[in-house]
Amino acid sequence: IRPAPIIVEYLPHQTNKGTSLARLMKYLNISKDEVVAFGDGLNDIQFLQNVGWPIAMENACDELKQYAKIITKPNSEDGVAFLLEKIFLNDNIEIDSNKTNLISDTNIVK
C-alpha cells in the first residue's frame, strides 16, 4: 500500500484496516451503522468501506473522498476533534444516511 508518495506500508496477505476493523466489530458484536471512521489516505479505503459513517479529511486524496459520507476539516485544523465535538454536542449536522458515495453528494462540515 502506498498511502502517500514517500510512504510504503507492508501488511500480511489479505490484511488491511478494513479487515481488522471487521474482526473487531464481530468480536464486539456491533454493526457497521454504529461505527464512525476517519481517513485521509489510500490505505483507508477498505477502512471506510466497512463502517456506516465513513468520514474523510478535507486534505484526503480525491480517490478516498469518493467513499465518504462526510468531509470534515483537514488534519491541520483538527478535523476529527471538530466533527466529534459537533456530533456529541448535537450541533445540528444533517446527514443523509442513504447518500451514494459520490464526491458531489458528500456533506462538507466546516
Automatic annotation (TrEMBL):
This is HAD-like protein. It comes from the Eukaryota. InterPro entries: HAD-like_sf, HAD_sf. One of its GO terms (molecular function) is phosphatase activity. One of its GO terms (cellular component) is cytosol. It comes from Anaeromyces robustus.
